[in-house]
Amino acid sequence: MAEPIAPEMTDELPISSQPPQPVKRSHRKPKSRSWRAGLQFPVGRIHRFLKDSVTHKGRVGATAAVYGAAILEYLTAEVLELAGNASKDLRVKRITPRHLQLAIRGDEELDKLVKATIAGGGVIPHIHKGLLKGTKEVK
Question: Which of 75, 85, 92, 133 is the most exposed place for a label (fewest CB within 10 A)?
């Protein structure tokens, strides 16, 4: 039976006296605030624009930009969905300003929100009831 070799006779150093190994740092890919919030709209850019428009030394809370980006993304998705439905009804594959106009003016809440004139949007089809052919009242 072979006798165990004493630690003094081996080439290996005891665990505590081994030279320290260099620390391997994992290089994580930086995550944007849009990614962290689960949004498509740029939170950092909106934060920068908010800081430029505020008068009090550019102090804006971090969550203000996330909230603003979420609102803008929701409104954009809503308008694009309605405009896509309008273009599908007209059997075309491309959304035009006309489809945006029909979508916004067709929705009561979006119509209140968007008061602007949409260039190339045309007008909403409407015929006054008095102009329609029908029974005339005789006096």
Answer: 133
